[in-house]
Amino acid sequence: MRQNGVVVYLNAPVPVLARRLEAFPEADQRPTLTGKPISEEVADVLAQRDALYRETAHYIVDASASPERVVTLILDALHLATAS
Asked: What are phi and psi of 9, to 5 degrees?
């Protein structure tokens, strides 16, 4: 991914991610990966993947911000990437 484009890691704390997943509890929205409650599952999966996500990313964006702010941060990162 890094060789063919700009990788942006949309990072958010576990409580924010869990809250977002719980906001739309439709069973067919997202299957469980571990069978654990959402907050435990998110914490476990993120603990396993966070280092890889950070290593892969060119930019890390705070995805706990409002959607509008996240878009602005992504556009800023992409602007920086194309300016160099």
From this structure: -90, 115
